[in-house]
């Protein structure tokens, strides 16, 4: 197995362990999860921080989200396209939320890789925002604002709806988020008093 393939196999094997145990997981536990000797891990990774960094990067890779957004059929009505986008973004937010403890520990601990992870997450989010903007650009004729601003707003709705510190028992469904985004909260039929 090539070093790149071995790295990827180790990362895929330890993701559930890191999501469950966070940065407290030991290299021995990682080796057991990957089914390799502990020394094998350090033959392809320089240290535990590098494993954590690669786990975050693998889990938050923007490419699958970019592709999923691009694959939403243009022939679908705008509302259906946006509902599909909300579901895709919500799944990513779920993964991000699961990794939040790892990210927080890397930023507050003595991890030399924290700056690399932070830069990766920012770049990844920028790419996803660009893909979401492109999805909205398909429907420019139905927008009363710039597609980029609409994308930022939609992303904000989805993030707030899924954030573990902000969720409520009545979290919005994908169609409710799209309805709120497209039509707002005002009842146009109500008297303005």
Could you explain how this protein is built, in words?
This protein has 193 residues and is mostly helical. It is built from nine helices and no strands. The protein folds into two domains: 59 residues, Arc Repressor Mutant, subunit A; 127 residues, Tetracycline Repressor, domain 2, CATH 1.10.357. 70% of the residues lie in helices and 0% in strands. The chain is elongated.
Topology:
Blueprint: H1 3-21, H2 27-34, H3 38-44, H4 48-59, H5 63-70, H6 78-108, H7 114-137, H8 147-162, H9 174-183
Summarize the main sheet.
none
Determine the strand fraction and express it as a percent band: under 5%
CATH architecture of the largest domain, please? Orthogonal Bundle
CATH class of the largest domain: Mainly Alpha
Helix count, DSSP H or I runs of 4 or more residues:
9
Described by the principal axes of the CA atoms, the overall outline is: elongated
Order of helices and strands: HHHHHHHHH
Provide the CATH topology of the largest domain: Tetracycline Repressor, domain 2
> Rg from C-alpha positions?
20 Å
Output mean pLDDT: 87
- How helix-rich are the residues, as a percent range? 55-70%
């Amino acid at each position: 197995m090539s070093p790149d393939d071995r790295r990827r196999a180790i990362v895929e094997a330890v993701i559930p362990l890191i999501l469950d145990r966070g940065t407290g997981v030991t290299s021995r536990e990682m080796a057991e999860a990957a089914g390799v000797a502990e020394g094998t891990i350090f033959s392809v990774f320089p240290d535990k921080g590098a494993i954590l960094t690669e786990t975050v990067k693998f889990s938050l890779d923007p490419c699958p989200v970019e592709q999923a957004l691009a694959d939403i059929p243009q022939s679908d009505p705008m509302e259906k396209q946006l509902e599909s986008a909300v579901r895709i973004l919500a799944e990513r937010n779920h993964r991000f939320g699961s990794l939040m403890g790892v990210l927080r520990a890397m930023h507050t601990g003595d991890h030399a890789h924290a700056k690399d992870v932070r830069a990766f997450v920012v770049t990844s989010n920028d790419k996803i925002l660009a893909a979401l903007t492109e999805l909205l650009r398909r429907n420019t004729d139905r927008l009363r604002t710039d597609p980029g601003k609409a994308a930022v707003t939609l992303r904000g709705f989805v993030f707030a709806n899924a954030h573990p510190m902000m969720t409520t028992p009545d979290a919005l469904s994908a169609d409710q988020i799209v309805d709120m985004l497209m039509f707002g909260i005002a009842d146009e039929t109500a008297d303005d008093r």
